[in-house]
Protein backbone atom coordinates (compact mmCIF):
# COMPACT_ATOMS: atom_id res chain seq x y z
CA UNK A 1 0.00 0.00 0.00
CA UNK A 2 1.30 3.45 -0.93
CA UNK A 3 0.95 6.05 1.79
CA UNK A 4 0.11 9.59 0.71
CA UNK A 5 1.85 12.36 2.64
CA UNK A 6 -0.24 15.52 2.85
CA UNK A 7 1.52 18.79 3.61
CA UNK A 8 -0.69 21.07 5.69
CA UNK A 9 -0.39 24.43 7.36
CA UNK A 10 -0.99 24.42 11.12
CA UNK A 11 -3.03 26.73 13.36
CA UNK A 12 -3.44 26.90 17.13
CA UNK A 13 -6.57 28.04 18.94
CA UNK A 14 -6.26 29.15 22.57
CA UNK A 15 -9.83 29.39 23.81
CA UNK A 16 -12.62 27.94 25.91
CA UNK A 17 -14.60 24.76 25.41
CA UNK A 18 -18.22 24.70 24.25
CA UNK A 19 -19.97 21.38 24.98
CA UNK A 20 -22.42 21.73 22.07
CA UNK A 21 -19.59 22.65 19.67
CA UNK A 22 -21.21 25.76 18.23
CA UNK A 23 -18.41 28.00 19.49
CA UNK A 24 -15.07 27.71 21.27
CA UNK A 25 -12.27 25.34 20.40
CA UNK A 26 -14.66 22.74 19.01
CA UNK A 27 -15.96 25.10 16.34
CA UNK A 28 -12.47 26.49 15.72
CA UNK A 29 -11.10 23.02 14.98
CA UNK A 30 -13.99 22.25 12.63
CA UNK A 31 -13.31 25.45 10.71
CA UNK A 32 -9.57 24.76 10.48
CA UNK A 33 -10.28 21.30 9.10
CA UNK A 34 -12.83 22.61 6.61
CA UNK A 35 -10.24 25.03 5.25
CA UNK A 36 -7.50 22.43 4.98
CA UNK A 37 -5.47 23.62 7.98
CA UNK A 38 -4.28 21.25 10.71
CA UNK A 39 -5.83 22.42 13.96
CA UNK A 40 -4.30 22.30 17.43
CA UNK A 41 -5.68 23.67 20.70
CA UNK A 42 -4.98 24.88 24.21
CA UNK A 43 -8.07 24.95 26.44
CA UNK A 44 -8.43 27.95 28.76
CA UNK A 45 -11.79 27.20 30.34
CA UNK A 46 -14.53 24.63 30.50
CA UNK A 47 -18.09 25.89 30.16
CA UNK A 48 -21.58 24.54 30.54
CA UNK A 49 -23.48 26.33 27.77
CA UNK A 50 -25.87 25.77 24.89
CA UNK A 51 -27.93 27.83 22.47
CA UNK A 52 -30.04 29.18 25.35
CA UNK A 53 -27.13 30.65 27.29
CA UNK A 54 -24.11 30.05 29.52
CA UNK A 55 -24.87 28.09 32.67
CA UNK A 56 -21.41 27.70 34.25
CA UNK A 57 -17.79 28.66 33.58
CA UNK A 58 -14.70 27.02 35.08
CA UNK A 59 -11.47 28.82 34.22
CA UNK A 60 -8.50 26.45 34.20
CA UNK A 61 -5.31 26.91 36.18
CA UNK A 62 -2.77 29.11 34.44
CA UNK A 63 -0.02 26.50 34.74
CA UNK A 64 -1.85 23.86 32.70
CA UNK A 65 -2.75 26.47 30.07
CA UNK A 66 0.91 27.46 29.81
CA UNK A 67 1.96 23.82 29.53
CA UNK A 68 -0.58 23.16 26.76
CA UNK A 69 0.82 26.04 24.74
CA UNK A 70 4.36 24.76 25.32
CA UNK A 71 3.34 21.27 24.20
CA UNK A 72 2.10 22.58 20.87
CA UNK A 73 4.60 25.32 20.07
CA UNK A 74 7.68 23.34 21.15
CA UNK A 75 6.72 20.44 18.89
CA UNK A 76 5.06 21.91 15.79
CA UNK A 77 5.69 24.80 13.46
CA UNK A 78 2.48 26.77 13.87
CA UNK A 79 1.62 29.14 11.02
CA UNK A 80 -1.03 31.18 12.85
CA UNK A 81 -2.56 31.44 16.32
CA UNK A 82 -6.03 32.51 17.37
CA UNK A 83 -7.12 33.48 20.88
CA UNK A 84 -10.74 33.36 21.97
CA UNK A 85 -12.17 33.23 25.48
CA UNK A 86 -9.30 33.87 27.91
CA UNK A 87 -11.29 34.70 31.03
CA UNK A 88 -9.03 36.79 33.22
CA UNK A 89 -5.91 38.96 33.41
CA UNK A 90 -3.64 36.14 34.60
CA UNK A 91 -4.41 33.92 31.62
CA UNK A 92 -4.08 36.79 29.15
CA UNK A 93 -0.65 37.63 30.58
CA UNK A 94 0.44 33.99 30.36
CA UNK A 95 -0.73 33.73 26.74
CA UNK A 96 0.94 37.03 25.83
CA UNK A 97 4.23 35.89 27.36
CA UNK A 98 4.17 32.50 25.65
CA UNK A 99 3.39 33.92 22.22
CA UNK A 100 6.26 36.39 22.58
CA UNK A 101 8.56 33.60 23.80
CA UNK A 102 7.89 31.56 20.66
CA UNK A 103 8.00 34.54 18.31
CA UNK A 104 4.44 34.19 17.00
CA UNK A 105 3.75 36.85 14.37
CA UNK A 106 0.48 35.67 12.81
CA UNK A 107 -1.82 36.25 15.78
CA UNK A 108 -5.57 36.83 15.53
CA UNK A 109 -7.21 38.03 18.74
CA UNK A 110 -10.94 37.52 19.11
CA UNK A 111 -11.51 39.68 22.22
CA UNK A 112 -14.30 37.57 23.70
CA UNK A 113 -16.00 39.53 26.47
CA UNK A 114 -19.69 38.66 26.32
CA UNK A 115 -21.70 35.70 25.09
CA UNK A 116 -24.60 36.09 22.65
CA UNK A 117 -26.95 35.72 25.61
CA UNK A 118 -25.15 38.50 27.51
CA UNK A 119 -23.07 36.45 29.97
CA UNK A 120 -19.74 38.02 30.95
CA UNK A 121 -16.85 35.90 29.68
CA UNK A 122 -14.00 38.24 30.67
CA UNK A 123 -13.29 39.81 34.05
CA UNK A 124 -13.41 43.60 33.94
CA UNK A 125 -9.90 43.82 35.42
CA UNK A 126 -8.54 42.03 32.34
CA UNK A 127 -9.19 44.88 29.89
CA UNK A 128 -5.71 46.43 30.04
CA UNK A 129 -3.88 43.08 29.63
CA UNK A 130 -6.22 42.35 26.71
CA UNK A 131 -5.21 45.60 25.04
CA UNK A 132 -1.57 44.60 25.48
CA UNK A 133 -2.28 41.25 23.80
CA UNK A 134 -4.02 43.03 20.93
CA UNK A 135 -0.89 45.16 20.47
CA UNK A 136 0.95 41.97 19.47
CA UNK A 137 -1.73 40.82 17.03
CA UNK A 138 -1.84 40.96 13.26
CA UNK A 139 -5.61 41.32 13.52
CA UNK A 140 -8.26 41.65 16.19
CA UNK A 141 -11.95 40.92 15.55
CA UNK A 142 -14.23 42.67 18.06
CA UNK A 143 -17.98 42.79 17.56
CA UNK A 144 -19.76 46.12 18.04
CA UNK A 145 -20.15 45.77 21.81
CA UNK A 146 -16.53 44.72 22.26
CA UNK A 147 -15.31 47.52 19.99
CA UNK A 148 -17.20 50.07 22.09
CA UNK A 149 -15.48 48.80 25.24
CA UNK A 150 -12.02 48.73 23.65
CA UNK A 151 -12.30 52.12 21.94
CA UNK A 152 -14.62 54.07 24.23
CA UNK A 153 -16.62 55.11 21.16
CA UNK A 154 -20.38 54.65 21.01
CA UNK A 155 -21.15 52.85 17.76
CA UNK A 156 -24.37 53.61 15.91
CA UNK A 157 -23.33 53.03 12.31
CA UNK A 158 -20.51 52.32 9.84
CA UNK A 159 -18.78 55.66 10.39
CA UNK A 160 -18.55 54.96 14.12
CA UNK A 161 -17.24 51.49 13.31
CA UNK A 162 -14.47 53.05 11.21
CA UNK A 163 -13.49 55.39 14.04
CA UNK A 164 -13.46 52.54 16.55
CA UNK A 165 -11.46 50.21 14.28
CA UNK A 166 -8.85 52.90 13.65
CA UNK A 167 -8.56 53.79 17.32
CA UNK A 168 -8.24 50.16 18.43
CA UNK A 169 -5.55 49.38 15.85
CA UNK A 170 -3.54 52.61 16.04
CA UNK A 171 -3.95 53.23 19.76
CA UNK A 172 -2.75 49.76 20.72
CA UNK A 173 -0.11 49.33 18.03
CA UNK A 174 -1.77 46.25 16.54
CA UNK A 175 -1.62 45.36 12.88
CA UNK A 176 -5.30 45.78 12.07
CA UNK A 177 -8.84 45.59 13.36
CA UNK A 178 -12.06 44.14 11.94
CA UNK A 179 -15.18 45.42 13.67
CA UNK A 180 -17.93 42.92 12.89
CA UNK A 181 -21.38 44.44 12.61
CA UNK A 182 -23.62 41.49 13.30
CA UNK A 183 -25.09 43.33 16.29
CA UNK A 184 -25.75 46.46 14.25
CA UNK A 185 -28.19 46.08 11.37
CA UNK A 186 -29.02 48.97 9.03
CA UNK A 187 -31.52 48.69 6.16
CA UNK A 188 -31.49 44.87 6.42
CA UNK A 189 -27.75 44.71 5.87
CA UNK A 190 -24.76 43.87 8.04
CA UNK A 191 -21.52 45.80 7.65
CA UNK A 192 -18.01 44.83 8.77
CA UNK A 193 -15.18 47.35 8.77
CA UNK A 194 -11.51 46.43 8.35
CA UNK A 195 -8.82 48.95 9.24
CA UNK A 196 -5.37 47.81 8.15
CA UNK A 197 -2.24 49.78 7.26
CA UNK A 198 -4.09 53.13 7.38
CA UNK A 199 -6.79 52.00 4.97
CA UNK A 200 -10.42 51.02 5.43
CA UNK A 201 -12.22 48.19 3.67
CA UNK A 202 -15.99 47.88 4.01
CA UNK A 203 -17.73 44.52 3.70
CA UNK A 204 -21.52 44.52 3.52
CA UNK A 205 -24.05 41.73 3.05
CA UNK A 206 -27.77 41.17 3.28
CA UNK A 207 -29.23 40.10 6.61
CA UNK A 208 -30.50 36.52 6.26
CA UNK A 209 -32.67 36.81 9.36
CA UNK A 210 -30.89 33.89 11.06
CA UNK A 211 -29.83 34.24 14.70
CA UNK A 212 -26.75 32.12 15.40
CA UNK A 213 -24.59 30.75 18.20
CA UNK A 214 -20.86 30.82 17.43
CA UNK A 215 -20.65 33.11 14.40
CA UNK A 216 -17.80 35.15 15.90
CA UNK A 217 -15.75 31.99 16.45
CA UNK A 218 -16.40 30.83 12.89
CA UNK A 219 -15.25 34.16 11.44
CA UNK A 220 -12.12 34.57 13.56
CA UNK A 221 -11.01 30.96 13.09
CA UNK A 222 -11.65 31.16 9.32
CA UNK A 223 -9.57 34.33 9.29
CA UNK A 224 -6.80 32.57 11.23
CA UNK A 225 -6.84 29.64 8.79
CA UNK A 226 -6.57 31.98 5.80
CA UNK A 227 -3.66 33.81 7.44
CA UNK A 228 -1.99 30.43 8.08
CA UNK A 229 -2.43 29.61 4.39
CA UNK A 230 -0.44 32.73 3.53
CA UNK A 231 -3.16 35.03 2.21
CA UNK A 232 -2.86 38.80 2.31
CA UNK A 233 -4.91 40.31 5.14
CA UNK A 234 -7.63 41.93 3.01
CA UNK A 235 -8.16 38.75 0.99
CA UNK A 236 -8.09 36.67 4.17
CA UNK A 237 -10.88 38.80 5.64
CA UNK A 238 -12.87 38.58 2.41
CA UNK A 239 -12.51 34.79 2.36
CA UNK A 240 -13.43 34.50 6.04
CA UNK A 241 -16.55 36.59 5.43
CA UNK A 242 -17.59 34.34 2.56
CA UNK A 243 -16.90 31.22 4.62
CA UNK A 244 -18.95 32.54 7.56
CA UNK A 245 -21.84 33.59 5.33
CA UNK A 246 -21.95 30.12 3.78
CA UNK A 247 -21.80 28.48 7.21
CA UNK A 248 -24.74 30.57 8.44
CA UNK A 249 -26.74 29.95 5.28
CA UNK A 250 -26.29 26.21 5.78
CA UNK A 251 -26.75 26.16 9.54
CA UNK A 252 -26.94 22.83 11.35
CA UNK A 253 -30.47 21.50 11.85
CA UNK A 254 -30.40 19.66 15.17
CA UNK A 255 -33.26 17.24 15.57
CA UNK A 256 -33.71 17.88 19.28
CA UNK A 257 -32.96 21.62 19.35
CA UNK A 258 -35.24 23.02 22.08
CA UNK A 259 -38.08 25.19 20.85
CA UNK A 260 -37.26 27.88 23.42
CA UNK A 261 -34.06 28.68 21.51
CA UNK A 262 -34.03 30.28 18.07
CA UNK A 263 -30.24 30.30 17.78
CA UNK A 264 -28.78 28.23 14.95
CA UNK A 265 -25.30 26.69 14.84
CA UNK A 266 -23.31 27.63 11.69
CA UNK A 267 -22.24 24.58 9.70
CA UNK A 268 -18.50 24.85 9.03
CA UNK A 269 -18.45 21.54 7.19
CA UNK A 270 -20.39 23.01 4.25
CA UNK A 271 -17.16 24.70 3.19
CA UNK A 272 -15.08 21.52 3.09
CA UNK A 273 -15.95 21.22 -0.61
CA UNK A 274 -14.01 24.43 -1.21
CA UNK A 275 -10.88 22.81 0.20
CA UNK A 276 -11.32 19.80 -2.07
CA UNK A 277 -11.78 21.98 -5.16
CA UNK A 278 -8.74 24.15 -4.40
CA UNK A 279 -6.66 21.02 -3.76
CA UNK A 280 -7.74 19.50 -7.09
CA UNK A 281 -6.79 22.66 -8.99
CA UNK A 282 -3.42 22.75 -7.24
CA UNK A 283 -2.79 19.11 -8.09
CA UNK A 284 -3.81 19.76 -11.67
CA UNK A 285 -1.30 22.60 -11.88
CA UNK A 286 1.44 20.41 -10.40
CA UNK A 287 0.74 17.70 -12.98
CA UNK A 288 0.69 19.97 -16.01
CA UNK A 289 3.93 21.77 -15.09
CA UNK A 290 5.58 18.35 -14.53
CA UNK A 291 4.68 17.18 -18.04
CA UNK A 292 7.74 17.55 -20.29
CA UNK A 293 5.69 18.29 -23.42
CA UNK A 294 3.11 20.61 -21.85
CA UNK A 295 5.00 23.78 -22.81
CA UNK A 296 3.80 23.16 -26.38
CA UNK A 297 0.26 24.01 -25.24
CA UNK A 298 0.99 27.41 -23.68
CA UNK A 299 -0.59 30.43 -25.39
CA UNK A 300 1.04 33.85 -25.18
CA UNK A 301 -1.42 34.92 -22.48
CA UNK A 302 -0.63 31.83 -20.41
CA UNK A 303 -2.64 28.85 -19.21
CA UNK A 304 -5.23 28.77 -16.45
CA UNK A 305 -7.22 25.97 -14.85
CA UNK A 306 -10.52 26.51 -13.05
CA UNK A 307 -12.92 24.25 -11.20
CA UNK A 308 -16.32 25.04 -9.67
CA UNK A 309 -18.17 23.88 -6.61
CA UNK A 310 -21.28 21.82 -7.15
CA UNK A 311 -24.26 24.09 -7.90
CA UNK A 312 -21.94 27.07 -8.49
CA UNK A 313 -23.69 30.26 -9.53
CA UNK A 314 -20.94 32.91 -9.67
CA UNK A 315 -17.19 33.21 -10.20
CA UNK A 316 -16.93 33.38 -6.40
CA UNK A 317 -17.77 29.66 -6.50
CA UNK A 318 -15.02 28.82 -9.01
CA UNK A 319 -11.39 28.28 -7.96
CA UNK A 320 -8.58 29.23 -10.31
CA UNK A 321 -5.08 30.63 -10.45
CA UNK A 322 -4.87 34.37 -9.72
CA UNK A 323 -2.06 34.64 -12.26
CA UNK A 324 -1.26 32.33 -15.15
CA UNK A 325 0.93 29.35 -16.00
CA UNK A 326 3.48 30.79 -18.40
CA UNK A 327 6.05 29.27 -20.73
CA UNK A 328 9.72 29.88 -19.94
CA UNK A 329 11.77 28.20 -22.69
CA UNK A 330 10.71 24.54 -22.62
CA UNK A 331 8.92 24.47 -19.30
CA UNK A 332 5.81 25.85 -17.63
CA UNK A 333 6.01 28.13 -14.57
CA UNK A 334 2.93 28.96 -12.46
CA UNK A 335 2.46 32.50 -11.14
CA UNK A 336 -0.13 33.37 -8.51
CA UNK A 337 -2.13 31.38 -5.97
CA UNK A 338 -5.20 29.18 -6.30
CA UNK A 339 -8.29 30.76 -4.78
CA UNK A 340 -11.95 31.25 -5.48
CA UNK A 341 -12.66 33.95 -8.08
CA UNK A 342 -9.01 33.55 -9.08
CA UNK A 343 -9.75 33.35 -12.81
CA UNK A 344 -12.63 35.37 -14.20
CA UNK A 345 -12.19 34.30 -17.83
CA UNK A 346 -11.90 30.55 -17.38
CA UNK A 347 -14.31 30.69 -14.45
CA UNK A 348 -17.03 32.10 -16.71
CA UNK A 349 -16.38 29.34 -19.24
CA UNK A 350 -17.02 26.78 -16.49
CA UNK A 351 -20.20 28.49 -15.27
CA UNK A 352 -21.60 28.65 -18.80
CA UNK A 353 -20.81 24.98 -19.42
CA UNK A 354 -22.53 24.05 -16.14
CA UNK A 355 -25.73 25.68 -17.39
CA UNK A 356 -25.90 22.81 -19.90
CA UNK A 357 -24.21 20.02 -17.94
CA UNK A 358 -23.72 20.26 -14.17
CA UNK A 359 -21.02 17.61 -14.46
CA UNK A 360 -18.75 19.91 -16.51
CA UNK A 361 -17.22 21.70 -13.54
CA UNK A 362 -13.74 22.42 -14.88
CA UNK A 363 -11.99 24.10 -17.78
CA UNK A 364 -8.47 24.79 -18.98
CA UNK A 365 -7.30 27.06 -21.78
CA UNK A 366 -4.50 26.05 -24.15
CA UNK A 367 -2.93 27.44 -27.33
CA UNK A 368 -4.89 27.25 -30.58
CA UNK A 369 -3.39 25.80 -33.74
CA UNK A 370 -4.81 23.71 -36.55
CA UNK A 371 -2.35 20.97 -35.56
CA UNK A 372 -3.66 20.89 -31.98
CA UNK A 373 -7.25 20.94 -33.21
CA UNK A 374 -6.51 17.98 -35.48
CA UNK A 375 -4.98 16.06 -32.56
CA UNK A 376 -8.14 16.75 -30.55
CA UNK A 377 -10.24 15.28 -33.36
CA UNK A 378 -8.04 12.19 -33.68
CA UNK A 379 -8.22 11.71 -29.91
CA UNK A 380 -11.98 11.42 -30.24
CA UNK A 381 -12.88 14.62 -28.44
CA UNK A 382 -16.12 16.41 -29.28
CA UNK A 383 -15.23 19.79 -30.76
CA UNK A 384 -17.17 23.00 -31.32
CA UNK A 385 -16.15 26.58 -32.03
CA UNK A 386 -17.43 30.12 -32.20
CA UNK A 387 -16.59 33.17 -34.31
CA UNK A 388 -15.78 36.35 -32.38
CA UNK A 389 -16.95 38.45 -35.35
CA UNK A 390 -20.50 37.21 -34.72
CA UNK A 391 -20.55 38.32 -31.09
CA UNK A 392 -23.44 40.71 -30.32
CA UNK A 393 -22.69 43.99 -28.59
CA UNK A 394 -23.17 44.22 -24.82
CA UNK A 395 -22.24 40.56 -24.29
CA UNK A 396 -19.21 39.04 -22.58
CA UNK A 397 -17.08 36.92 -24.89
CA UNK A 398 -16.57 33.95 -22.58
CA UNK A 399 -20.26 33.55 -21.76
CA UNK A 400 -21.52 34.24 -25.27
CA UNK A 401 -18.82 32.24 -27.08
CA UNK A 402 -19.04 29.20 -24.82
CA UNK A 403 -22.83 29.26 -25.03
CA UNK A 404 -22.77 29.54 -28.83
CA UNK A 405 -20.32 26.65 -29.19
CA UNK A 406 -22.22 24.41 -26.78
CA UNK A 407 -25.60 25.07 -28.40
CA UNK A 408 -24.09 24.39 -31.82
CA UNK A 409 -22.70 21.07 -30.57
CA UNK A 410 -26.00 20.11 -28.90
CA UNK A 411 -27.83 20.81 -32.14
CA UNK A 412 -25.37 18.95 -34.38
CA UNK A 413 -23.99 16.23 -32.08
CA UNK A 414 -26.51 16.05 -29.27
CA UNK A 415 -23.95 16.60 -26.51
CA UNK A 416 -21.84 19.23 -24.75
CA UNK A 417 -18.40 19.42 -26.44
CA UNK A 418 -15.09 18.56 -24.80
CA UNK A 419 -13.34 21.33 -26.73
CA UNK A 420 -14.51 24.91 -27.31
CA UNK A 421 -12.28 26.97 -29.60
CA UNK A 422 -12.10 30.26 -31.45
CA UNK A 423 -9.66 31.60 -34.03
CA UNK A 424 -9.17 34.93 -32.31
CA UNK A 425 -9.81 38.44 -33.48
CA UNK A 426 -8.28 41.91 -33.48
CA UNK A 427 -6.11 42.03 -30.36
CA UNK A 428 -7.46 38.67 -29.21
CA UNK A 429 -5.38 35.50 -29.24
CA UNK A 430 -6.95 32.37 -30.70
CA UNK A 431 -7.69 29.84 -27.97
CA UNK A 432 -8.81 26.30 -27.17
CA UNK A 433 -10.68 25.53 -23.96
CA UNK A 434 -10.90 22.00 -22.59
CA UNK A 435 -14.08 21.19 -20.63
CA UNK A 436 -14.17 18.36 -18.09
CA UNK A 437 -15.66 17.04 -14.88
CA UNK A 438 -12.82 18.25 -12.64
CA UNK A 439 -9.38 19.86 -12.74
CA UNK A 440 -7.52 16.57 -13.03
CA UNK A 441 -9.79 15.50 -15.88
CA UNK A 442 -8.96 18.53 -18.05
CA UNK A 443 -5.26 18.22 -17.23
CA UNK A 444 -5.30 14.53 -18.24
CA UNK A 445 -6.82 15.58 -21.54
CA UNK A 446 -4.19 18.30 -22.04
CA UNK A 447 -1.34 15.89 -21.31
CA UNK A 448 -2.68 13.43 -23.91
CA UNK A 449 -2.86 16.22 -26.48
CA UNK A 450 0.67 17.43 -25.67
CA UNK A 451 2.04 13.90 -26.00
CA UNK A 452 0.81 13.68 -29.61
CA UNK A 453 2.35 16.95 -30.82
In short:
Helix content is 37%, strand content 22%.
Name given to the CATH architecture of the largest domain = 3-Layer(aba) Sandwich
Structural class: alpha/beta
Total individual domains: 2
Largest sheet: 7 strands, mixed
Oligomer: single chain
Shape: elongated
Q: What's the CATH topology label of the largest domain?
A: UDP-N-acetylmuramoyl-L-alanine:D-glutamate ligase
Q: Strand percentage, roughly? A: 15-25%
Task: Assign the CATH superfamily of the largest domain.
Answer: Ribokinase
Query: Can you tell me the residue ranges where pLDDT is under 50 for at least 5 consecutive residues?
Result: 1-5, 258-263
* Individual helix count: 13
Relative helix content: 25-40%
Count of strand segments = 19
Widest β-sheet, arrangement of strands? 15-12-11-16-19-18-17
Taking all Cα atoms into account, the compactness measure Rg is 25 Å
Return the average pLDDT rounded to an integer.
88
What does this structure look like?
The protein is an alpha/beta fold. The protein folds into two domains: 10-267, Ribokinase (UDP-N-acetylmuramoyl-L-alanine:D-glutamate ligase, 3-Layer(aba) Sandwich); 272-451, 3-Layer(aba) Sandwich (L-fuculose-1-phosphate Aldolase). It has helices at 24-34, 62-73, 89-101, 127-135, 144-151, 158-172, 215-228, 233-249, 272-290, 344-354, 370-378, 397-412, 439-451; strands at residues 9-17, 37-50, 53-59, 80-83, 107-109, 139-140, 176-179, 185-186, 189-196, 199-206, 305-308, 318-321, 325-328, 331-334, 338-340, 362-367, 383-385, 419-422, 431-436. The chain has a seven-stranded mixed β-sheet, sandwiched between helices. A six-stranded mixed β-sheet has the order 3-2-1-4-5-6. Strands 7, 8, 9 and 10 form a four-stranded antiparallel β-sheet that branches. A hairpin with an 8-residue loop joins strand 18 (419-422) and strand 19 (431-436). The longest helix has 19 residues, at 272-290.
Amino acid sequence: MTLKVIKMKTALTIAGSDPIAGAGIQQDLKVFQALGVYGTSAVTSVTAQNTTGVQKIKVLDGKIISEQIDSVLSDLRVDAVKTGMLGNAEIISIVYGKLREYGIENLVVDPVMLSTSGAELLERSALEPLKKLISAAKLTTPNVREAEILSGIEINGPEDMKLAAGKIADGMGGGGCVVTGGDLKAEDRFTDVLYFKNRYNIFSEKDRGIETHGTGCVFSSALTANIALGLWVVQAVRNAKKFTSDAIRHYVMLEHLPSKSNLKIPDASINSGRVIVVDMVRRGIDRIISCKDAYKLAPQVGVNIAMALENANSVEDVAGLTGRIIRVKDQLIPAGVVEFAGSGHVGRVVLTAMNYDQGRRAAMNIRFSDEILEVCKKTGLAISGFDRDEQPQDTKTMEWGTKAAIEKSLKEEGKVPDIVYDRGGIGKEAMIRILGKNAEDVVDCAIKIAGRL
